[in-house]
Amino acid sequence: MNAPHRPERHSDPRAGHGPDPKDRPARLTVGVVGAGRVGPALAAALQLAGHRPVAVSGVSDSSVKRAAEMLPDVPLVPPAQVLAQADLVLLTVPDDALPGLVEGLAETGAVRPGQLLAHTSGRYGTKILDPALRAGALPLALHPAMTFTGTPVDVQRLAGCSFGVTAPDELRLAAEALVIEMGGEPEWIAEEARPLYHAALALGANHLVTLVAESMELLRGAGVAAPDRMLGPLLGAALDNALRSGDAALTGPVARGDAGTVAAHVAELRKHAPQTVAGYLAMARATADRALAHGLLKPELAEDLLGVLAGPAAAAGGTEGFRDGGADGHDGDADGGDR
């Protein structure tokens, strides 16, 4: 099936303009169920595009405070009342809470026929909204591939942010227009590909935070007074190179096959930060596999290196799951924060 026509983007919605009026949805009343970090930011972005937030629900003190800051003068009401007042409802709750929320809203009759119901989970497509679909709702999956702070800066960061979008064919143009109006760039994800899409984002974004935090701790242990200042240029260049060149950007002792250096790393980590050994070995093995496959690591050097990663020292660090040449999968939250 051919991809639908992409509405032409004439200007940045942050400047108060959106796509061509003939391609964008009519002005909508907007409701938010779940005032976590994501929902209020998306509603605020839609407000800049001319839509009107009318209701928001939140339970915790932080949610109430966030809603007041991001959506001033928008009343805080129970979820059912949000649906009663809004043409477009953003369901911005954690992944595990979404199925029960959708079922509950549908069973209680809160869903109205013709109502746009959009969730922001990376994990799910629109099938999770089937109970609401049977009640007449129009289902959308709009996942911003960005980490959120829960502050107004998130609205500006939406400019150019990719959204993983899944929608029925007849709603694709509307879904795409909403994303563009929020400042984002729609990227179509097939329903069956949503779990893989989400895993990919978690692997890159969530694990990056863990790696950076561990690296900063180790640098402090080595006596570096400002590890963030030291890592900033290095990591910025590494990220830019990786995005531009992929595996060709691989550098360092693993990619070079410096088995002695890697062995020294493992020994030092075991002495000073044993909790990081398993992660180091896992990433080193994955790096070696990729470097070898792309001709960056010479086979004669790879043998000694892989011996270090799979030898007794590595085994003590918990690498049993990596000796067969592959790492087990990991679950993770794709957007890096509470919704």
TrEMBL record:
<dbReference type="InterPro" id="IPR036291">
    <property type="entry name" value="NAD(P)-bd_dom_sf"/>
</dbReference>
<dbReference type="InterPro" id="IPR018931">
    <property type="entry name" value="DUF2520"/>
</dbReference>
<dbReference type="Pfam" id="PF10727">
    <property type="entry name" value="Rossmann-like"/>
</dbReference>
<feature type="compositionally biased region" description="Basic and acidic residues">
    <location>
        <begin position="321"/>
        <end position="339"/>
    </location>
</feature>
<feature type="region of interest" description="Disordered">
    <location>
        <begin position="317"/>
        <end position="339"/>
    </location>
</feature>
<dbReference type="InterPro" id="IPR019665">
    <property type="entry name" value="OxRdtase/DH_put_Rossmann_dom"/>
</dbReference>
<feature type="domain" description="Putative oxidoreductase/dehydrogenase Rossmann-like">
    <location>
        <begin position="24"/>
        <end position="144"/>
    </location>
</feature>
<protein>
    <submittedName>
        <fullName>DUF2520 domain-containing protein</fullName>
    </submittedName>
</protein>
<feature type="domain" description="DUF2520">
    <location>
        <begin position="161"/>
        <end position="287"/>
    </location>
</feature>
<feature type="region of interest" description="Disordered">
    <location>
        <begin position="1"/>
        <end position="26"/>
    </location>
</feature>
<dbReference type="Pfam" id="PF10728">
    <property type="entry name" value="DUF2520"/>
</dbReference>
<dbReference type="InterPro" id="IPR037108">
    <property type="entry name" value="TM1727-like_C_sf"/>
</dbReference>
<dbReference type="InterPro" id="IPR008927">
    <property type="entry name" value="6-PGluconate_DH-like_C_sf"/>
</dbReference>
